[in-house]
Structure formats: structure tokens, C-alpha cells
Design brief:
There is one protein chain. The protein is α+β, with helices and mostly antiparallel strands. The chain has one domain (42-211): Endonuclease, Chain A (2-Layer Sandwich), CATH 3.30.870. It has five helices and nine strands, in the order αβββαβαβαββββα. It has helices at residues 4-28, 74-84, 106-116, 140-152, 199-211, and strands at residues 53-54, 64-65, 68-69, 90-94, 126-131, 156-161, 168-172, 176-180, 192-196. The strands form two sheets. It has a seven-stranded mixed sheet with strand order 3-9-8-7-4-5-6, with helices on one face. A two-stranded antiparallel sheet has the order 1-2. The chain is globular, with a radius of gyration of 17 Å.
Length: 219
């Protein structure tokens, strides 16, 4: 039985995803060169909408979390992902556009991913990436460099493709997950939330991935 706060949280996530879908559709219909003029406006002139907002689902009353990454705050967003991945052995990354971007930036993107998943640490053994294989969303140079980086770190990688999954979600050891409002490459470029996925939603998500053959993480 969900509490009223949990229901409000889920309702907020749904509304947020709807707004971001509309925003990305708007950007897709504009000239990429003009994207800067379509950037989300500053919120009430404040530096951050949510800097230290107590998380209603934290297991300790005094814990705080960063919920919003602003343009220019890429380092803070990547740090949130590093914290999430700290003890992960098997990571599932649902990100349709994880391989998107300029081929010239392949090394930078691969290194950011390496840091975010703590690939050089002792914990991570397996990474499974679910992405959109549409050529317009995938830069082969980026995909190749990420695979090379994982191979260098002796991390086993598997993949699945889907054109129906929109949201970006990282799943650690099938036991906890975080929702990211933009792809890895977009963190710090646009306003984006990084929020924990409620356990009930994670169960439903894993069931969907399992039922559709998308969640394989080989040993």
C-alpha cells in the first residue's frame, strides 16, 4: 500500500516525464544550431531549484540528496552516478541515446562513463546496456570506444536494443535503481533530475524487461 507521499512522488515523476518528452519533441523539430534559444529558462532566477531537499524515502532522517542538475553542473551529476554505482557488481543501463553524440567526443564520453560506473574499481563485473539502435541515435565510434574501455577493465558487457523505452534508468544488482532525466551525454547540458526509482516501480520495470528479453546480464 503506497503512502500519500509515495503517490505524490510517482505522480510527479509521471508529469516530469511527460514534460521532458514534449520538450525533446520540440527540440527534435528545431534546427540543432538553434537549440540554445530553446533551452529551458532559469527557474525564478535562482541558482538551483532543489539543492538540499530532504528525500522522503531516505532511510535516515538527516540524509539529503541532490535531485536536480543544472546546466553547467555536469561534474555534480556524474558524482551522483558514481555514488549510485559505488558497490554495484551488475549494472543495467537503460538509455536509448547512450551512444549518441559527436564521434570526435568518443574518448571523453567513454571516460565519463568509466568514472560514472566506477569501472576501475573492484566491484563492477558486468554491464548490460539497453539502447535504441536507430542509426540517428547511435554513433559507432562512441559505442566502439565504450566497449573497448569496458574490455580494458575486464568488465563483461552485453546489450539489448529497444525503440519503446524512453526513460533513462540505471539498475544496480536488480535491487535498486535511479532515474536520470537525460542521457549520460546530456548531464550538465540541460536541466535534469536524478531520482531514486521506488521499489514497486523497479519490480514492474524488471518484469517488463524480463518478459521482453531485454534484461540479460551474462556472467
Amino acid at each position: 500500500m503506497k503512502t500519500s507521499n509515495e503517490k505524490r512522488y510517482l505522480d510527479f515523476i509521471r508529469k516530469y516525464n511527460e514534460v521532458m518528452r514534449e520538450y525533446e519533441e520540440l527540440l527534435a523539430e528545431t534546427d540543432l544550431a538553434d537549440n540554445e534559444i530553446w533551452a529551458l529558462p532559469p527557474l525564478l532566477g535562482r541558482r538551483s531549484l532543489v539543492v538540499e531537499r530532504k528525500c522522503a524515502f531516505a532511510d535516515e532522517s538527516e540524509r539529503y540528496m541532490e535531485m536536480l542538475t543544472q546546466p553547467g553542473q555536469r561534474a555534480a551529476g556524474l558524482k551522483e552516478l558514481r555514488n549510485f554505482s559505488a558497490t554495484t557488481e551488475s549494472l543495467i543501463v537503460v538509455d536509448p541515446y547512450i551512444y549518441s553524440g559527436q564521434a570526435a567526443n568518443a574518448e571523453t564520453i567513454a571516460q565519463d562513463f568509466k568514472k560514472s560506473i566506477r569501472a576501475a574499481g573492484a566491484s563492477l563485473k558486468r554491464v548490460h546496456i539497453i539502447y535504441d539502435a536507430d542509426e540517428s541515435n547511435t554513433a559507432n565510434a562512441i559505442r566502439k570506444r565504450i566497449h573497448e574501455m569496458l574490455a580494458d577493465e575486464k568488465i563483461h558487457i552485453t546489450e539489448a536494443t529497444s525503440a519503446v523505452l524512453h526513460d533513462r534508468i540505471w539498475i544496480s544488482d536488480r535491487s535498486r535503481a535511479t532515474v536520470i532525466g537525460t542521457s549520460l551525454n546530456g548531464i550538465g547540458g540541460r536541466l535534469a533530475f536524478i531520482l531514486p526509482l521506488p521499489s514497486d516501480d523497479l519490480i514492474e520495470l524488471l518484469k517488463y524487461l524480463d518478459d521482453n528479453g531485454l534484461s540479460r546480464v551474462a556472467g
